[in-house]
Structures are given as structure tokens and as C-alpha cells.
Specification:
Blueprint (H helix, E strand, L loop, with lengths): L1 H20 L17 E10 L5 E7 L5 E7 L2 E4 L4 E10 L5 E7 L4 E7 L2 E4 L4 E10 L5 E7 L5 E7 L2 E4 L8 E6 L5 E6 L6 E7 L2 E4 L6
Antiparallel strand pairs: 1-2, 2-3, 3-4, 5-6, 6-7, 7-8, 9-10, 10-11, 11-12, 13-14, 14-15, 15-16
């Protein structure tokens, strides 16, 4: 009995010690910063890198057009266009390279990569429209593009100046949303026709159906 009482006392002492040393979790504090606009009424931010650089789109003066922007060190910079009226920035890597979509002078819309103050037209997979949504630390870009005659849109990987069609999971269309430093791509694809779509992982030249959670 003596041993049991001593054990209980030791247990109580340990528990008290734990309660004394448990740190109080401080409430997380956040600051919401208004990034402003490029002279217009509204703006949207769609991407941020580890350095706190932000990209998105903003109305310009008069709210007639939208322009892709890069917000860095408190300054919002207009990234311009590929010759058309509007542009949109969707992603940025830790090197400050930006990707998105811009209208061209012939009223098409193409994916772009903005690097070193130069906006580069990434072209299409034969169709009229394309858009870039992700870029990794190696400058590889992913997104979607219309195919020839604009009959469908396919996910693409743009690397070393070449846009590669990643295909689909068997359906008509696909889109790529992100890419890591190993060149692995994620997105969504129709599995039959143009109806049901599944998430995919593209790695080593193979598009893998990630399935669903039962739906």
C-alpha cells in the first residue's frame, strides 16, 4: 500500500510538472495588406512565391482593360501584354518568373512566361488559345492549350522552348495546374468524352489517373 501511495504521488507530481511546463499557444496574428491597383477599380491576386512576391490581374485606368501584375517590395508593376488588350498572371516561382495568359494583336490569347522584364509568347498546340498556370524552379511551365481547329484543349508542358502535349486520360480535354522541381505535373482530365474528369499525375511520360474519393 505504501508503494502504491508513493507511486500515485509521483504520478501527480509529474502531471503537475507537465501542466506547469506546457507552453501557452499564442493566437496567430495576420495582417491583410491592400495591394492597390494599376489605376482601375478592382484587382485580384492569384499567386505568391516564398519571397512574398505576388501576381495577379488589375484593372487599368478607366476599367477598360486588365493587366497582369507583379507586386514586389511594395510596388505593383504592370507586366504588359503580348500585343493585345489584356493579360493575367496566375503563377510565380521563387526566381520571380511569372506565367499567365495574354491577348495577342490578332485577338487570340496565349500562354506567357515573364522573365527578366520580357514577356515571352509560349504559343499553342495548334489552336487559338492557351494559358499557363504553373512554373517550377527550373522555368518549366504547365497549363492548357487548344489543339488544332480548337476542337479540344490539352494539358501541356513547356520546357526548353518546346510545348509538349500531355494528352488525356481517354477523354477529350485536360488541363495542367502545377509542376514541381522534378518535373512532375498535376491537373485534371476527362476520362471519357467531355463529361467526367479525374485528377492526374504526369511523371516520366505517363499520365496516371488519381481516381476519386468514391464520387
Amino acid at each position: 500500500m505504501q508503494h502504491r501511495i508513493l507511486s500515485l504521488h509521483l504520478f501527480a507530481a509529474v502531471m503537475v510538472g507537465i501542466s506547469w511546463t506546457t507552453p501557452t499557444l499564442a493566437a496567430a496574428l495576420y495582417t491583410i495588406t491592400d495591394l492597390g491597383t494599376l489605376g482601375g477599380t478592382t484587382t485580384d491576386a492569384w499567386g505568391i512565391n516564398s519571397n512574398g512576391q505576388v501576381v495577379g490581374r488589375s484593372d487599368t485606368t478607366g476599367d477598360i482593360t486588365s493587366r497582369a501584375f507583379l507586386y514586389s517590395n511594395g510596388v505593383m508593376t504592370n507586366l504588359g501584354t503580348l500585343g493585345g488588350i489584356s493579360s493575367y498572371a496566375y503563377g510565380i516561382n521563387n526566381n520571380g518568373q511569372v506565367v499567365g495568359q495574354s491577348y495577342t494583336s490578332d485577338d487570340a490569347a496565349h500562354a506567357f512566361r515573364y522573365s527578366g522584364n520580357v514577356m515571352t509568347d509560349l504559343g499553342t498546340l495548334g489552336g487559338t488559345y492557351s494559358s499557363a498556370s504553373g512554373i517550377n524552379s527550373n522555368g518549366q511551365v504547365v497549363g492548357w492549350s487548344d489543339t488544332t481547329n480548337d476542337v479540344a484543349s490539352h494539358a501541356f508542358l513547356y520546357s526548353s522552348g518546346v510545348m509538349t502535349d500531355l494528352g488525356t486520360l481517354g477523354g477529350d480535354s485536360s488541363s495542367a495546374f502545377g509542376i514541381n522541381s522534378n518535373g512532375q505535373v498535376v491537373g485534371q482530365s476527362n476520362i471519357t468524352g467531355n463529361d467526367v474528369s479525374h485528377a492526374f499525375l504526369y511523371s516520366g511520360g505517363i499520365m496516371t489517373d488519381l481516381g476519386t474519393l468514391g464520387g
